[in-house]
Amino acid sequence: MKKIFYSLFVLLVVLTSCKSSETISNSTSHSKTDPTYWQQHVDYTMNIDMDVETYQYKGVQKIVYTNNSPDVLTSVYYHLFLNAFQPGSEMDARLQSIEDPDGRMMENGKSRISTLKPEETGYIKVKSLKQNGKSIAYETVGTILEVKLESPIQPGEKVTFDMDYDAQIPLQIRRSGRNSKEGVALSMTQWYPKLAEYDFEGWHADPYIGREFHGVWGNFDVTINIDKNYTIGGTGYLQNPNDIGHGYETGPVKSTDGDKLSWHFIAPNVHDFTWAADPEYIHDTMQVPDGPLLHFFYKNNPAIKENWKKLQPKTVELMQYFSSEIGKYPYEQYSVIQGGDGGMEYAMCTLITGERKFGSLVGVTAHELAHTWFQFLLASNESKHEWMDEGFTSYISDQAMNVIMKEGKENPSERAYQGYYYLVKSGKEQPQSTHSDRYDCNMAYSIAAYNKGEVFLAQLGYVIGQDNLKNSLKKYFTDFSFKHPRPIDIIRSAEKVSGLELDWYLTDWTQTTNTIDYAIKSIAGVGNTTTVTLERIGLMPMPLDIEVNYTDGTSEQLYIPLTMMRGEKPATGDRTQLKDWAWAYPTYTFTINKSRGDIKDLTIDPKELMADIDKENNVYTKE
């Protein structure tokens, strides 16, 4: 998701008739790479009745939960995200205590949540909950519903939970809400009681403080009863288009005498369900060749129509690019929807603010669409490993923008490197293994997630070679889509493709704040030979690319392998390979069979793909 106010730093079930969940993926199957892998499964059936005058709705939810774990579960937990939008909530408290609060959530120096009136707050109030038809006890604790089970769920067992609840949509403050600054009536994200994920680490019942998510893979059957003048866009395939119209119809639209329409959606094998609605939405569609049907929903605002029309063919190109570079998009539709408070990815759709210049509109769409791969198909735990989705998304969307918008950048990730250097110099860097809610400040979180996460991939290409990086991303997608990959999984994918040992790279870059700093310590000439001594100043090891330019106009590419890689990246041209450099040795010396006077300049990492924090000591130039 794009953090707009940090842009200076972030330089940065039953399915449709044509597709079944089996044809998309069997999410409960064992991983190809780990026969012990398991993940939970949930089937949602939900029906809500929305009152667009009061912004309240009543919900009925049925969940069939499959315990694929080897553990007996004595408790379950639900997320009640909308409860965060109440004065005194943990989200409100965090806004008031962090040194650089999210500007979208502040007004006149105060938390917008703290000033909400009762009719402006958000809430989900559970009225009843049953397990297999029997009432069970529960307690609401902030944004979490704690449920102690009288009948534990055995390994392999399926249970049914039935819930009735009342809810109110808050004023649009963060992601969810009503009446956004751009006039969108309903941005319905994190709007239903959502079962928390249980995995090999146990329950993930994190309170909602404003960060990211982790959800259970499953199927959704959702019916939304709402004022008939409202158009809905979001997750899932509409099952009754000719009862609805609103741009979905495939034939004559049936007339209705009532004030409401019942929209029936089915979404196969996703881990969230999102929608937005507005009475003024324009609904356009565009088909991706050999791909999904794209839907576009935006306000009937003359000031933005031209840009939203121009956006549509660009989104086709983006969909094709990501499908080619990572893996084919597996669903039959995707929706780009004006809503929310910036840009945020969801299952089969994104909500973005729409009153933007054209380049910005394409850029935010590129980023959020890329999240379909890095989070909604490769569903890492965003709360713990936010850099895996934000960083990888930033990397591939910058690559896409460079091609599709013809930006002509030699290094599309250059701004991410600059953001990372800023963070290092600020003294506020924390390891990327920090839980997303536990960063000291939003700036440190944003740069660690977006910029440093992007550099992780860009620099990995430097370490293993660009072709190996591309093939690693494709293998990662093949092996871990429709699952919950961990940091080790991207590195193991890269190791299997490259044949190199890379655990050191994952450890130093993501679990520490060790930095890379190599220097040219000395250059000494003796007759027709020159001795070059390099120095490792930073704690993080790297292999080195070195370029030597000679006074006669020739040049030479040198490569120093890193011993702990147990191999070398492929050469892309003529290259002189020197002996390995073992990390523990602080200096390294090699000889060039030229006089010192013949050397015009010598540069460590001439393409600047290594995130060396001090570039000035990387270059020798003849005086």
Describe this structure in words.
By secondary structure, this protein is α+β, with helices and mostly antiparallel strands. Helix content is 23%, strand content 30%. It has 11 helices and 33 strands. The longest helix has 24 residues, at 302-325. The radius of gyration is 26 Å and the shape is elongated.
Helix-strand blueprint:
Blueprint: H1 21-24, E1 41-51, E2 56-66, E3 73-79, H2 90-97, E4 106-107, E5 110-111, E6 123-131, E7 134-135, E8 138-141, E9 144-153, E10 158-168, E11 177-178, E12 186-188, E13 194-195, E14 197-199, E15 202-204, E16 218-227, E17 231-234, E18 237-238, H3 241-244, E19 260-270, E20 275-278, E21 281-287, E22 293-299, H4 302-325, E23 333-338, E24 343-346, E25 349-352, H5 358-370, H6 386-404, H7 414-426, H8 442-464, H9 466-480, H10 487-498, H11 503-511, E26 518-526, E27 529-536, E28 544-550, E29 555-560, E30 576-577, E31 587-592, E32 599-604, E33 619-621
Parallel strand pairs: 1-16, 22-23, 23-25, 29-30
Antiparallel strand pairs: 1-2, 2-10, 3-9, 3-13, 4-5, 6-7, 6-10, 8-9, 11-12, 12-20, 14-15, 16-19, 17-20, 18-19, 21-22, 24-25, 26-27, 27-31, 28-29, 28-32, 32-33
Helix pairs in contact: 4-5, 4-6, 5-6, 6-8, 7-8, 8-9, 9-10
